[in-house]
C-alpha cells in the first residue's frame, strides 16, 4: 500500500505530464471502501479556491490513477 507522500508524487507527476498546474495548498483525503472495498486517495490542488484545481483519485493498494481532471479557471 502506498502512503500520502507517494500518492502526492504520483499526482504531481501526472499533472506535469498533462501540463496542469499543481498549486498549493493541496488537500489529501484517504478514503476506506465500505465492507472491505478498495482504499483510495483523493487529491485536490489549490484547495479551497476557485480555478486551477487538479483532482485525482489514486488506488491506495496499487498507486494506479483511477480518475483525474482539471479546472483551469
Please provide a written account of the structure.
- A hairpin with a 5-residue loop joins strand 3 (53-59) and strand 4 (65-71).
- The termini are far apart.
- The mean pLDDT is 94.
- This protein has 73 residues and is α+β, with helices and mostly antiparallel strands.
- The chain has one helix spanning 4-18, and strands at 27-31, 40-44, 53-59, 65-71.
- Helix content is 21%, strand content 33%.
- It has a single domain, classed as Nuclear Transport Factor 2, Chain: A (Roll), CATH 3.10.450.
- It contains 1 helix and 4 strands; from the N terminus they run αββββ.
- This is Peptidase propeptide domain-containing protein.
Amino acid at each position: 500500500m502506498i502512503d500520502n507522500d507517494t500518492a502526492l508524487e504520483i499526482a504531481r507527476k501526472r499533472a506535469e505530464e498533462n501540463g496542469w498546474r499543481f498549486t498549493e495548498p493541496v488537500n489529501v483525503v484517504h478514503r476506506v471502501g465500505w465492507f472491505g472495498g478498495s482504499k483510495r486517495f483523493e487529491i485536490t490542488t489549490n484547495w479551497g479556491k476557485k480555478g486551477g484545481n487538479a483532482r485525482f483519485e489514486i488506488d491506495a493498494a496499487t498507486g494506479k490513477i483511477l480518475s483525474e481532471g482539471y479546472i483551469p479557471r
